[in-house]
Amino acid sequence: xxxxxxxxxxxxxxxxxxxxxxxxxxxxxxxxxxxxxxxxxxxxxxxxxxxxxxxxxxxxxxxxxxxxxxxxxxxxxxxxxxxxxxxxxxxxxxxxxxxxxxxxxxxxxxxxxxxxxxxxxxxxxxxxxxxxxxxxxxxxxxxxxxxxxxxxxxxxxxxxxxxxxxxxxxxxxxxxxxxxxxxxxxxxxxxxxxxxxxxxxxxxxxxxxxxxxxxxxxxxxxxxxxxxxxxxxxxxxxxxxxxxxxxxxxxxxxxxxxxxxxxxxxxxxxxxxx
Length: 274
Ligand SMILES: NC(=O)C1=CN([C@@H]2O[C@H](COP(=O)(O)OP(=O)(O)OC[C@H]3O[C@@H](n4cnc5c(N)ncnc54)[C@H](OP(=O)(O)O)[C@@H]3O)[C@@H](O)[C@H]2O)C=CC1
Ligand SMILES: O=C(O)C(=O)[C@@H](O)[C@H](O)C(=O)CO
What we know:
Bound molecules: NADPH dihydro-nicotinamide-adenine-dinucleotide phosphate, the ligand O=C(O)C(=O)[C@@H](O)[C@H](O)C(=O)CO
Pfam families: Aldo_ket_red
CATH superfamily: NADP-dependent oxidoreductase domain
Family: Belongs to the aldo/keto reductase family.
Shape: globular
Distance between the termini: 39 Å
Structural class: alpha/beta
CATH class: Alpha Beta
Order of helices and strands: EEEHEHEHEHEHEHEHHEHH
CATH architecture: Alpha-Beta Barrel
InterPro entries: AKR (IPR020471), Aldo/ket_reductase_CS (IPR018170), NAD(P)_OxRdtase_dom_sf (IPR036812), NADP_OxRdtase_dom (IPR023210)
Organism: Actinoplanes lutulentus
Strand order of the largest sheet: 3-4-5-6-7-8-9-10
Number of helices: 10
Keywords: NADP, Oxidoreductase
Number of strands: 10
Largest sheet: 8 strands, parallel
């Protein structure tokens, strides 16, 4: 297994700092893509019920024969399954598709504030956690007010908030609110779906280190303590994205990449996505 650094979550369990994301990989291609990732050394896989490819992830896991305790598998409850009973049922369906008997991390995919169900959904995740069917529970696309509302329930604090973060959208207020509560930030679309890789500031830093632009952007994330889950279906890129733990950006280089911020959201806005 590749020597991937881990972060310790607020319940004491560890999570690899890099994982492999499978959004937009068709179900028919998912097993092969995940197999490439596992062969490259990834042990953390990020999927979601709505991606429609949990069964492909499960097939690759079964074929790989890697001991279950070396894997870290995340999936997410979709918006239409929010609510206490609905989320419990959605969890069972995801586990069945994955062919697993427990998950490492289960996330509420979006707060969908209009429906006002995310607190009930959170209580369902707490039940699953208490039953030891999932090793950690968290949220995704939560703004500070959603995080605080969950924390104010007085039960389990989310271990992770998976949000869109990349050089063009840094979400510092959301990250700070999470840090205050002990919530690790996991960056989705960490490469801005490749939209920041040809910026001259990134390519110049990459040339200095004899690395690719993607490696520089992923390194910018991990040096700031975030988990990253880049997606690629290209085996050489899958390997390249994992090879980011043997070089270091200087504080000036980090600051230069910080300068790419431009409110460059690529996905839906959490306040309006239901
Ligand atoms: N919680 C949420 O709401 C969301 C979660 N996610 C999660 O985050 C993961 C990653 O996000 P995603 O939107 O896929 O975007 P990424 O930022 O990971 O970018 C993926 C794109 O970058 C390309 N790419 C990957 N590596 C390289 C490289 N080394 N050099 C050049 N291009 C590269 C890929 O191309 P190619 O595949 O052709 O190689 C693909 O087009 C998802 O798969 C999913 O797991 C994503 C969106 C929302
Ligand atoms: O990829 C995800 O995890 C998402 O939630 C979104 O990208 C979402 O599915 C979407 O694309 C809605 O248009």
